[in-house]
Amino acid sequence: MNNIDRIFTRDSKAFASEYLGYLASVLERIDVTQIARFIETLLAARDRAATVFFMGNGGSAATASHFANDLAIGTNDYDMPFRALSLTDNVSVMTALGNDVGYDDIFVRQVRVLGRKGDVLVGISASGNSPNLIKAFEYARSAFIKTVALTAFDGGRMKTMADEGIHVPTELGEYGPAEDAHMVLDHVVGAYLARFIKSD
C-alpha cells in the first residue's frame, strides 16, 4: 500500500492535511546537490547556445511544457536566452508519429530532426520506464546529446541510463506527489535562473 492510499480518509479536510504533510516530507528528501548540478547543466547549455529539450507523458507532458516556458521565456533574457523546447507541444507532429510510426517514436523522431551534438534532453517520468522516453535517451547517447532524468518511485531505467538526474523519493504508484514535486523543481530552477541572470 502506498502512502496516498494509507492516508486516505473520507474526511476531505483530514486527507488534504495528510497529503500536504506527506508532500512536504517528499520535498525535504530531494537531494539538492542534484538540483544544483541540473542548474549548472542548464547554464552551460546556455553558454554554448545549445537547445534543452523536455519530454514526458500525461501529467509529465504538461510539466515539460511548463519547464520549457519558464526556462525560455520566464527568465526574461533575450540577449543570451535559454533555448528550450518541449517535445510535447506540437500536436500535429505527435499525432502523425503516433499514428504513422508508433507512440514509442513520438520523441525520438523529433530529437533526430531537431537535436544536435551538445544539446540537452530532459525526460520527466515518475516511473522512469516509459518506452518512448527510453528510446529517445538511447538515441541521445549515440548523438552526444546529454540526458537528464527527472524521476520518482525507484527511478526505473531512466535513472540508471541518464547522464544525471533529480530523483523524487516516493513509493510506487504515488503519481500525485511525484508530479507535484517535479513541478516544484521547475519553479525552484526557474526562480533561481531568472535571478541569477539579473545579478550578472
Report what the structure shows.
The chain has nine helices and five strands; from the N terminus they run αααβαβααβαβαβα. The protein is of the alpha/beta class. It has one domain: Rossmann fold. Helix 4 (59-72) runs parallel beside helix 9 (175-199) and helix 6 packs parallel to helix 7. The longest helix is centred in the C-terminal third of the chain and has 25 residues, at 175-199. It is globular and about 50 Å long. It starts with a helix and ends with a helix. The mean pLDDT is 97.
Instruction: Give the tally of structural domains.
Output: 1
* The CATH class: Alpha Beta
Number of strands: 5
- SSE order, as H and E? HHHEHEHHEHEHEH
Poorly predicted residue ranges: none
Fraction of helical residues? 55-70%
Cα shape = globular
Could you say which structural class the secondary elements and strand pairing correspond to?
alpha/beta
The biggest beta sheet is recorded as: 5 strands, parallel
